[in-house]
Amino acid sequence: MGITRLLSHPLLAFFLLCPGLSQAKVEDSEAQKLLTTLAESSFAEKKEVVNQIAGSGDERARGWLESYASNKLGRIESSGQFIIVLENRGRDWTVESALTGENLGEISRRDIDTIRVNNALRNELESILSVIDLKSPDEDNRLSAARALKGSVDGTLAERIPELIETEESASVQAALTEALAIYKVEEQGDVAAVATLSGSLNSEARAALQQAMRSDDAALVAAATEAMASIEQKLTLNRAAETLYFGLSLGSVLVLAAIGLAITFGVMGVINMAHGELIMLGAYTTWGMQQLLPGQPGLALLLSIPAGFLVAALAGVAIERTVIQHLKGRPLETLLATFGVSLILQQLVRTVISPLNRTVITPDWMSGSVMINEALSLTLNRLYVIGFALVVFAGLMLIMRKTRLGLEVRAVTQNRAMARSMGIKATKVDILTFALGSGVAGLAGVALSQITNVGPNLGQSYIIDSFMVVVFGGVGNLWGTLLAGMTLGTINQLLEPWVGAVLAKIMVLVFIILFIQKRPRGLFPQKGRAAEG
């Protein structure tokens, strides 16, 4: 239902467009009369009643109309009292009084006469609610309503928008209303001056108006619209590049989390652990399990999953190191095959004990949604949190490696194992703790991955090869190299995917790394001194 028909009723037009009109409650008797008329009239008559309710100035009117649009406005058959349904599941519905807002508890749905609404009336109600919000005391509501008007303004509203802009205190709402008016002027009047207002706008309705203007017979209008569209396309290109960079950093953060634990163990022990991906999987399943233990509290479950995922993966890593890897030191091929076998065992164990199907991990409310930068660019919160989490984990590992005794011993064993042992460092203990640390970080990667991808038995297989690529590209055992390599490979992959597809993009990245290590066999940040001699 267009704005034109909404504003055809004088009372509604006055209520919506008069800038000085304040909202208040009408008398309950008048409200009861309006709702009774709405309930008892035909659909053709209901449209008139809806306009009367919207134009009543009653602060409760929006709630009534919103409830009516969603089939939640009704009355109790026995008493005729009008109610709003709060919960309509089961045989008994939770309701409140439409006039007083008092919670009336649960009432049998058979005792409630719901006021019927058809699709045509529902469409009109949605438009009315959008326009009513322009008078809302809440700035966000006014901004949403102003944005909704873009492409929907008619002649009557266009005459009053300048007054709304003048009385509006919010600059963002003013800008949205100005743009809505400019779209109308370009589409309906071919106003060349209004084109300048839309120049650089990222709104789809604005672009549609300019594209329409470019097909006009007016040469001046076509020239102005063409210039404005060129400006918009330039902005869109920059925003697409920013979005690609954001997704690249997000993927890079995942690769850093997945690879940084491997960089530690591979750097210290020289072990090619093909079960590293399954340690990531265990971290993800720990998150799922924690949510099963704390149903209805996904946020708390996720926070508790961080230490739990670390411990579960660390203990699994110690078990692998003690039962398999310590017996195969100095035999890289046998270690690779053995850890590959362990990875298959862990996958089958999860399939048998839990399920071969993917499990759903609920994303907390504070990680859902996105941050809207502009109308062409929004940043999803879950990926933003993953980027931040990866940086926090990286900073924590750097502190451990630089400021603790364990970090000192790890660096000593990495540089010269024999010399470290001669200085009294227990290399075996360092191996165990290092493997536990690297495995625990893999568990943290699984916790993060549970928020952006499916949790299943094959989760780790998707990242094991990429993890080794990051480690080799960055330099074995170098945390800064791992960070830079992960972010670089993630961004390159995202840049290539739109052009060549996901599979070919990975192949091209692999070819790039092969060529790179031909030139720099020790990676971006090679070990120096005696550590590089081994």
TrEMBL record:
Gene Ontology molecular-function annotations: transmembrane transporter activity
Cellular component GO terms held in the UniProt record: plasma membrane
Cellular localization per UniProt: Cell inner membrane
Membrane association type: Multi-pass membrane protein
Annotated GO biological process: amino acid transport
Superkingdom classification of source: Bacteria
Signal peptide: 1-24
Pfam families assigned to the protein according to its UniProt record, in alphabetical order: BPD_transp_2
Main location: membrane
Transmembrane segments: 245-272, 300-320, 384-401, 432-452, 464-487, 499-517
Gene3D superfamilies: Leucine-rich Repeat Variant
Keyword Nucleotide-binding: no
Alphabetical UniProt keywords: Amino-acid transport, Cell membrane, Membrane, Signal, Transmembrane, Transmembrane helix, Transport
PANTHER family according to UniProt: ABC TRANSPORTER PERMEASE PROTEIN, BRANCHED-CHAIN AMINO ACID TRANSPORT SYSTEM PERMEASE PROTEIN LIVH
Protein family: Belongs to the binding-protein-dependent transport system permease family. LivHM subfamily.
Protein name as annotated: Amino acid/amide ABC transporter membrane protein 1, HAAT family
Native organism: Marinobacter antarcticus
